[in-house]
Amino acid sequence: MQCLLFDGPESVYHVHDKGYKWLFQKPQVLIGFLRDFMKLPAEATVLEVVSLDTEHVLPDWKGLRSDRVFRVLLEIGGLRREWLVLLEFQREPDTTMDVRFLEYEMLAMLSQANAWRGNNANAGTATDLTLPAVMRIVIYNGEFPWQGWKQRPLVKQEAAQCWTDLPEVWIRKVHQVDVHRMDVHELASQTSGISKVFWLDQVIGVDYEETINRLRALPTRLDLVSGEEYKSFMGWLNVRLQKSVPAFVQKIAEVFEQMKRGEEGKVAEVVEVYYEKKFREVREQALLEGKLEGKSEGKLEGKIEFAKRLIAEEQFSVDKIAHLSGLTVEQVRGLMVN
């Protein structure tokens, strides 16, 4: 099964970034994200979501960055307001982020002004030019914290005509959603599909045991996720797991093809079998290499080699490595230091 989600002419820094970009092309995913993470008021009605990527992705970065730009029309309290939502997906910290957001905003405003000029070119009386408010968001999926990050104003000037009844989070700032450092219980309790993406992406490829635990819990976690968001989530998970468990691509594809809603936990069984098989292969190879070295302590060398390989995978706890390798916790910690 071809992984179309991550294959294509565009090149981005990391598969996480491209996966997120694919997800956010769905309006319902963006709306769920704004409600769960940007405190969009429950009484707000989203009237329209339009992707502006082809208009506003900067030429110098097109194909290199995984960005999304949306025009969102909201109604709250009987008033309508247009917002420009700028999304950046980052795996690594980027010190040029503020400048990039400013350039996106300038391009969008110029586009609005040109459209207004064209509409009023032959009119006797010009209509008012109304520019959208802007929401700037970085979704950061890096392994380590973004040092020096702060929720800060983009520029000194405050945005004009911001709704006073919208949360402070919606006023002229650059906001960061830090996937790996979100509270796991809060993520699990939220109802949007994207919250479940973040909840799983915290552990896939990082902690295999917790990955299996969360996959088993999917049927209950997905209960309140809407139909369209559910489809997007399952499409993302299918390809995400195929990338993480490459030897079982066909098996994973078959499980997803046959699986019904409420049976999502079945995928945990496939992932668990994959890791068990991988453990056996790594252990046998480590033991073999330990014996071939001709050392009298070949058995111990095999355990050490096995433990080193598990450490290199960066997906296993100290206790788990000790249990699988037969070494003590202290021995494993010593190998990590050395």
What do these coordinates show?
The model is unreliable at 1-13, 55-66 and 152-165 (pLDDT under 50). With 338 residues, the chain is of the alpha/beta class. The chain has 2 domains: 15-115 and 129-266, no CATH class; 267-337. The protein has 14 helices and 6 strands. The longest helix has 27 residues, at 266-292. A 6-stranded mixed β-sheet has the order 1-2-3-4-6-5, with helices on both faces.
Q: Strand-residue fraction? A: 5-15%
Task: Show unreliable segments.
Answer: 1-13, 55-66, 152-165
Tally of structural domains: 2
The main sheet comes to: 6 strands, mixed
List keywords for this structure.
alpha/beta, disordered N terminus, 14 helices, single chain, 338 residues
Topology:
Blueprint: H1 15-23, H2 27-37, E1 45-51, H3 53-56, E2 67-76, E3 79-90, H4 97-120, E4 133-140, E5 152-153, E6 173-178, H5 184-189, H6 193-201, H7 208-216, H8 218-221, H9 227-244, H10 249-258, H11 266-292, H12 298-313, H13 318-325, H14 329-337
Parallel strand pairs: 3-4, 4-6
Antiparallel strand pairs: 1-2, 2-3, 5-6
Helix pairs in contact: 1-9, 6-9, 7-11, 9-10, 10-11, 11-12, 12-13, 13-14
Short description:
With 338 residues, the protein is α/β, with parallel strands linked by helices.
